Every structure is written in structure tokens, then in C-alpha cells.
Amino acid sequence: MLANSTFSVITVTVYLLLYCILLQIEYTQWLAVYMFLLSPVLVIWMVYTVLKYGVYKGRKLAEDEEYGYQDRL
């Protein structure tokens, strides 16, 4: 479960939304400060998971291509 790149992206996104909501509520701003301190760890985990377990589903580049765009055929 922790190796799923989609799970990590959704988890960190929900965490960010919860953080933004807690900043707006006066009584929970102290909790948002602690969430802010934990956020770099979650972002590093998300990036690591996406880079290690993410699957690219686009076309393969030709031998003479250095990079490619998905909106062009």
C-alpha cells in the first residue's frame, strides 16, 4: 500500500487541503504549524514513491529524440 504512487499523491493532496482549512480556523492554527513542520517529510516520501514506483504510459522516444510531448503525434 505504501508503494503505490497514486496513494501517496492523494494522501499528500488531502494533507495539503486539510492544512489550508486548519489555517483558516482560529482555534486550530497551532495544529497547522505542526502539520507545516511535518510536510517536507511527506513531500519527500511522495516524490520518492512516484519516481520509484510510478509507471510511464506514454510512447517511447525514437533514437534521435531527446524529449517528447504527449500533445503531439
Secondary-structure topology with pairs:
Elements (H helix, E strand, L loop, with lengths): L4 H20 L4 H25 L20
Helix pairs in contact: 1-2
Structure description:
This protein has 73 residues and is mainly α. It has a domain at 5-53. It is built from 2 helices and no strands. The protein is elongated and about 60 Å long. It starts with a helix and ends in a 20-residue tail after the last helix. The chain crosses the membrane at residues 7-25, 31-51.
Structural class: mainly alpha
Count of individual helical segments: 2
Task: Please give the alpha-carbon distance between the first and last residues.
Answer: 35 Å
- SSE string, helix = H, strand = E? HH
Strand share of the residues? Answer: under 5%
Q: What's the total count of β strands?
A: 0
Q: Give the overall silhouette.
A: elongated
Unreliably modeled segments: none
